[in-house]
Amino acid sequence: MSVRLKIILIVLPLLIITLVLSSIASSLSARNGITRVAVELLAFKAQDMKGYLENQWNLLVENQLDRQREYILTVQRGALTYAHSLISSETELLFALDRNDQMVLRTRDTPLTDQERQELTDLRGEQTEGWVELSIAGAQRVGHAFTFEPFGWFFLVTEERRTFFREVTEITTQNAIILAAASAVSVLLLLLFSGYLTGPITRMVAAMQGIIHHHNFSERVRVEYKDEIGTLAHTFNITITELEKAYNQIKNFAFKAVLAKKHEQEIRSIFQKYVPAEVIDRFFKNPESLLIGEDRVLAVLFSDIRGFATIAELMRADQMVQSLNNYFSLMVDTIMNRNGIVDKYIGDAIMAFFGAPVQHSDDALQAVLTALEMQEALVEFNGRQAADGKPEFRIGIGINYGVVTVGNIGSDKKMDYTVIGDMVNLASRLESLTKIYKQDVIISESVYREVHRALPCRLIDKVVVLGRNKFQRIFTVKKELNEEEKRAWKYHHEGLKRYYHREFEEAAKYFRQASKLVPGDVISAVYFDRCRSYLKQPPPAKWNGIHVLTEK
Fold first, then answer.
1. Which of 50, 238, 305, 319 is the most exposed place for a label (fewest CB within 10 A)?
2. First CA to last CA distance, the chain
3. Which residues lie closer than 8 Å to 527 by C-beta, 6 or more apart?
């Protein structure tokens, strides 16, 4: 939006608002004054009519003729004549109703609707005195009402509303015309003066655009006025001179920056194959920080191809390398899509972690979702393998969550950005358990605590893995369950409650039911066999249900 338009949009509303308020004030003042005069005129006529009737009635009373009907009728006929003398416009109407709501006096013949008659009856019944508004013969009227008790007449001196407010309407119309004319003149003057004021600024903008488009720093503007705008033009010319100097310096800096950027890109392209991109980013921001290890809570994922040695025997070396490369490419993409970092390849195994160098609030959940999506991606991979006549891959994935040491570890000749610690070892052991329990994914209890509200989890066992003394509850997890799986997992957990309470016969029933719902369910079959075994030979008194593993 231009400065000229802004000036118009600021000043014009102020002018128009002032004119409108002035017009409204004058219209209201005129309306109030004219209305007051008109109301007083109607009230005066009503008082005059009432005074005439009272004078005539007093004459009858003084002459003791107030009970003579012919004299009363004479006075009433005279009242009609007097009423006609009070009429000053064609639209004015004076009439009266008797006690029976019959119209006994009117200055001109005016038909009334039933609704209008009822309105007059209501006014009479309410003994209305003074100002009234009503409808007569389909026209809105205003007037003054009074009651003359000797005759029992209810008088109304009225005028049509449009005639009553005619002068007010004319004044309002004239004010509107004046307002429109004044607004038009104001807009014209504003356009002229705003153009005069903003012309130098417009020329400065044009000069600046020429500089931007053509990089011609020789552009200057003419100083037209000895005021703030003239000072602005002079300052503009000085600024352009300084910009010309700075522009030449920037070109030199830009050339050096391009060389540095090219060097950085060469480094990235070489090392990104070996080091995560986020680690390289941190290196360029703060190279010293990556030399220091730190303790960090994160998730570690281990994935391994089951029976890889057997698969390798069935394929030529070049086929094996090609399949592995395709497999690793698919798995790595899946890991990186969830902000995971591929730590290393250990033969056919993959080690990855989530939460370093950038930590997120849902690293454990992202690791589990990655594992499930890796299994989904494996289905796609195996489809291509089968189409090429190659053996399918099967993988097991273990995930743990806890404190590890993360950083650059190695020697000055070879370093890896990696994680170490007991928590990493447990993640590797969990991957090994997938072979024993025939599960695609096994997670630790710490992972379960982070994800069980988002994903369905199933307790597999309480185990002590090789190389550890404390037992660990291990779980499997899925993205979603069908109805049979939901019921089967519920039966499984109910069976576990009874199993750990040594109620093996009852527990066996639940495990058998779970096996019926999901045929081939290895976990339920394992516990069913354990229950049958313990029914034959009960475990010792100190048995706590923990299964001690003697192999990796």
1. 238
2. 73
3. 492, 495, 496, 499, 507, 511
Under CATH, which architecture does the 3-168 domain have? 2-Layer Sandwich (3.30)
Residue type at position 63: N
Element (H, E) at 459: strand 457-464
502 close to 543: Cβ distance less than 8 angstroms: yes
Spatial distance between the Cα atoms of 374 and 303, rounded to a whole number of angstroms: 9
Tell me the per-residue pLDDT of 79-137, one tens digit each, with 9 for 90 and over.
888 888 888 888 888 888 888 878 888 888 877 777 877 787 777 777 668 888 888 87
Mind listing the pLDDT tens digit for each residue in 310-332? 888 888 889 999 999 999 999 99
Q: Tokens for 184, please give them.
A: 């038009």
| Contact criterion met (CB below 8 Å) for 303 and 350 | yes
Largest CA distance in the chain: 148
Instruction: Give the contacts of 481 (CB within 8 A, at least 6 positions apart).
Output: 456, 489
Residue 112 DSSP label: -
CATH match for 283-461 among 3.40.50.12160, 3.40.50.20, 3.30.70.1230, 1.20.120.910: 3.30.70.1230
The amino acid at residue 50 is K
Q: Burial level of 273, CB count in 10 A (0-12/13-18/19+)?
A: exposed
Radius of gyration of the chain (CA): 51
Ramachandran angles phi, psi of 406, nearest 5°: -125, 140
Q: What percent of the chain has pLDDT over 70?
A: 83
Instruction: Give the residue among 223, 244, 241, 218 at the shortest CA–CA distance from 233.
Output: 223
- Taking the C-alpha atoms of residue 44 and residue 36, their distance in angstroms, rounded to an integer, is 12
Upper half-sphere CA count for residue 444 (Cβ side, 13 Å): 29
- Residue 381's nearest CA partner among 394, 366, 369, 396 is 394
The DSSP result for 113-158, as a single string, is -HHHHHHHHHHHHTT--EEEEEEETTEEEEEEEEEETTTTEEEEEE
